[in-house]
Amino acid sequence: MKKQRELNKTLQSIDEKSYWNQNDRLKLKQSILSSIDQQDDKRSHKRTPFVYYGSLITACLFIFILLVPFIQGLDNNDQHASSTWTGNASADGFSFDLISIKEGKDGATVVLQIENKSEYDFIANEIFIKNLDNQVFTDEDRSSWSYQPEDKYVDKSSLLLKTKEREGSFDEIKTGEKVEIEFFVPNQYRSEQYQLMYQSYTIPLEPGRDKVPGRVFHTIDLQNRVITKYEEPGNIGGFARTMIPILFIVGLLFIALRLGKTTQTKVLLVFAIITIATLGHFTKMLLTDDQREIEQEALETLSSPMTDVVHIEMLNSKEALVFYEWGGGTEVFLGSTIVKKTLLGWHSNGGGASQIASEQKYETGYSGLELRGATEYVHLLKGKVLDEAIAEVRVVVDDKELTGNIVEYAERERLWYIVSNNANIDQATVYWLSEDGEIVEQSY
């Protein structure tokens, strides 16, 4: 409309100085307006591809990140499907056959055949029931169908099942061999709270870069007669959780630039979007439960099976020391990691763990926290407290005496730790004391 009014004024001034008829005037006006429209279309076509393709790419990235967990879930389902065997070997070389499941009044008697079709030997084989809520089993929960080895530490939320060998050796399944075992599963441990599991430690016949020892866990579903390799539940991941809102904001910015008719409108829209997004982000960070976010980040970063965060120690407002356990049966590990707060939320660089062994009642493990990004304290001594007589831990380094922290978690489970900036802390002498202050044990 503005251009038409300007054109009418121009033509009117020409009318005052020229002599032409009304038809000529209308033809000239239509020709000029048509030329203006064509120029606008050309400018529009030149500008549209960048905005259009930019918005399209942003939308595709946004949809892709949203679908990542679903795609991973499908991939896991495919792995699980390929891990369901009746005489066929999996990619790891395990071949299972549920020969029979005999239901009884108190539970089911299961006969399982395991064949080794891999280039590994399977050792430390065991069948156990895992409490998925990490609740501790007591001596009252054990019966004639379970056992508790005295020379090994057993995960407190696991029940080891006795196995009877019908064919072959279950202690060690060499490549090309098979074993047939029988075990009993009580009915009270067949609900969704519990998971029947088989675990094995695989040793390659010829170690190499692509062939390393490792622990493999399988779940046994008696109801559906399915045996699958254990996989951690899929999650969206810290990177995806960060990128989704960023891409959403970028998409809004593209839309604002597209819809804004004037430069001033575009600037106002962009400023409003950035301001609202910034305020929303920092408000979310202020209202977020840090403990829950720290635990979630640690669990998403650590890739170990059956991981449980057991204690979180805030070193300062932006750094947390997280202790965790992973595994089941007699293969249980105690580890630690540093989780740091950034502008985008809490972030972890992974962790390190060591196996818990019953013969090491007075365990001392060292970790260099600076490798995990810690700045408050860079050295850590830690261990599992397995002796009930221990009431206090003291550490002597460079003629200075320090007191360790003892943390109780779950039911009667304890660990100890001390953080320090002393570079010689790994050479310290550790004293484990009773309630009376007597030295129960010491390490050098």
Polypeptide structure, described:
The chain is an alpha+beta fold and 444 residues long. It has three domains: 122 residues, no CATH class; 147 residues, Sandwich (Immunoglobulin-like), CATH 2.60.40; 154 residues, no CATH class. 31% of the residues lie in helices and 36% in strands. It has five helices and 23 strands. Strands 3, 4, 5, 7, 9, 10 and 11 form a seven-stranded antiparallel sheet that branches. A four-stranded antiparallel sheet has the order 1-2-8-6, with no helix packed on it. β1 and β2 form a beta hairpin. 23% of the residues are buried. About 6% of the residues have low confidence.
Give me the number of helical elements.
5
Largest sheet geometry: 7 strands, antiparallel
Alpha carbon gyration radius = 34 Å
Average pLDDT level: 78
Number of strands: 23
What is the domain total for the residues? 3
Spans of at least 5 consecutive residues with low confidence: 44-48, 69-88
Structural class given helices, strands, pairing? Answer: alpha+beta
- Our measurement of the CA-to-CA distance between the termini, rounded to an integer number of angstroms, reads 90 Å
Helix content: 25-40%
Beta-strand percent range: 35-45%
Gross morphology: extended
One letter per element, helices H and strands E, the order comes to HHEEEEEEEEEEEHHHEEEEEEEEEEEE
